[in-house]
Fold this protein.
Amino acid sequence: MAQASAIEWTDATWNPVTGCTKIGPGCENCYAQRFAERWRGVKGHPYEQGFDLRLWPSRLSQPSRWKKPRMIFVNSMSDLFHKRVDRQFIDRVFDVMEESRWHVYQVLTKRSSLMRSYVRKRYSGGEVPRHIWLGTSVEDAAHISRINHLRQINSEARFISFEPLLGPIGPVDLSGIAWAIVGGESGPHARTMAPSWAIELRDRCEETDVAFFFKQWGGPRPKSGGRLLEGEEWNGFPWRIVPDAILKSLQH
């Protein structure tokens, strides 16, 4: 399903895969699972199967029908690099992204080692096209190895989502990262984010020239705590990595 997005750091979502399985503490209160399971068993609904993994070949052509350039979050309701998504289908997703290159695609995964292996093989050591941004989610210090996997990909457009941020990250190396998104958890069982965790990451981004975006404090609802960090909104965006051919369209 392709649709306009309420996510602050993108324009639209595209879900050629839906459903997933949990692999870490950041998945415990998964918003996508909570949404999808509401519709399990409802005949004809896109989430009739709940949050079970499903491939949607019929959705592969959607970006090509969007003529105006936009930021597209790929698989907001899944993980493209889930071990049960076969390589041939991932190939087809990347084929679409390469062909419809007037968009910027934001691919986010927790399965960073699988993404690294796939990308290295697909591009044979060459650089990933600049309009395909690759990112990983890191919820606490125990999972910073994902950042090392990401840095081993030949791309200028690497980003990290520290959301939900569940603990201090510590003195992390952000070299080679273009963008960091930080946010607290939202939902009925949201875990609290300490201000010091977010401030530490903001300061680290400023030291290493990484664009810093503070998405939310979180709470029962995404907007419960607002977006101010030390009295300011932080809307950093890595414009320097947007391809020149689509930069002007996206800025307007």
The first helix runs from residue 31 to 37. Residues 2-15+61-251 form one domain.
